Amino acid sequence: MLSFDTALTDSLKLGNTTSFWVLKLYYNAEGSSDFIGVSEQDRSDGSDFYHGIVASWGEYQQSLDFFNFTTSTGNMTVNLINTDNSIQGGRFTDLFSTYNFANRKWELFQNTSQTSTYDTSARMIAQGVISGDINYDTKQVSLTLLDLNDEYHEQIPKAVIQNTESGEDYYYPNAPEKNINKPIPMAYGDFHDKTGIGTIPTSTCEFDRYFTKGQFPAVITDEWDQTNGYIEAKPDSVAIHSLDTKNVYMYKDGYYSPCEDSNVTVANPLITFSDNIWRVYNTLHSTANSDAIDNNFNTGTTSDQTTAPLWEVSMGFSINKIPNLGKINTGIHDIFLLIDYGAFQTSGVDFWRVNVNGTQINLANFDSVSIEKVNITSAFSSAEISAWDFECSVTFELNDETSEDGGQFTINEIGLEVEFTPSQTFEKQIQEQYISSNYAGIGSAYVETNSIPDFVYRTRSVTKITPSIADYIYYSGKGRKYGSWITGRSSTYTTSSYIENPVYIIEDMIRTELGQTNIDTTSFDASGDYNTGELGDIFNDAVRDIQFAMSQYKFINSKDFIEKIGQQCLSWVFLSGDGNFKIRTLRRDGDYTSSDATIDYRQIKLNSISRTQLGAVRNDITINYNHDYGQDQNLGHSNTTDATSQGTGVNGVGKELKLELDVDSIIDSTTADQLADAYLHVFKDRKPIVDFTCTTPKYNELEITDIIDFTNWDSNIDIYGTAMGGYWMITNISKSIKSTKIKAIKVST
Question: Whole domain around residue 736: which residue ranges?
Answer without folding.
Answer: 597-612+687-748
